[in-house]
Amino acid sequence: MTNTALITGASRGLGLALARSLAASGWNLVLTARGADDLERVAAELGATAIPGDVTDPAHVERLARAAPELDLLVNNASDLGVTPLPPLAGYPLETFRALLETNVTAPLALVQATLPALRASSRGAVVNVTSDAATGAYEGWGGYGASKAALEQLSNVLAAEEPSVRVWWVDPGEMNTRMLADAVGAEEAAGAADPAKVAAALHDLVSSRPASGKVSLQ
């Protein structure tokens, strides 16, 4: 039986790299991202199903769940960085913070809720929630983003306790050479970070080996 994965934020960065890795192993893929043109190109490359849209939109979440009635893996990879340059908490725009929580915490939970019936029915049902070392480190300027990822980690921790039949991994991929990191620290510094393809290979290994639910650092 062919495995099926639903990956958010799949048009670039880690999401794209993981989609390529899983596709090379014969997985069926349902991919989503906000940029329709980029997503369609990725789907054409990989023979995947593309459903562009915003994961904070409840109707989009419903479309994604309907597109994967049989599902083995949900990867909540889509994230919002927030304001750049990264501001201190004393001046962090509260509307931006609310939007961060909507994208980085509420949307992953909504997708978990929508896909849990299929994941429970699978003998290999699993959730990967992509987090960050900013969830635990006191990095200046990263308070808004880090707080959202800390919330996602605790959500994952409780989900793992509540859903013993489903593997739940909250994964810190480490710094990667992505557009998001470049937006945060500059392109020159980001260029020295890890290749997303290398990190995706480690994440693929995690999914294949299926260790117990828990936090995983890939670098």
TrEMBL record:
Matches recorded under CDD domains: SDR_c
Matching InterPro entries: NAD(P)-bd_dom_sf, Sc_DH/Rdtase_CS, SDR_fam
Cellular component per GO, a single term: membrane
Domain of life: Bacteria
Alphabetized SUPFAM superfamilies for the sequence: NAD(P)-binding Rossmann-fold domains (SSF51735)
Keywords annotated in UniProt: Oxidoreductase
MF terms in GO: oxidoreductase activity
Keyword set includes Oxidoreductase: yes
Pfam family, one: adh_short
Keyword Transmembrane assigned: no
PANTHER family named among the record's database cross-references: DEHYDROGENASE/REDUCTASE SDR FAMILY MEMBER 7B (PTHR44196), DEHYDROGENASE_REDUCTASE SDR FAMILY MEMBER 7B (PTHR44196:SF1)
Similarity remark: Belongs to the short-chain dehydrogenases/reductases (SDR) family.
Protein name: NADP-dependent 3-hydroxy acid dehydrogenase YdfG
Organism lineage: Bacteria, Bacillati, Actinomycetota, Actinomycetes, Streptosporangiales
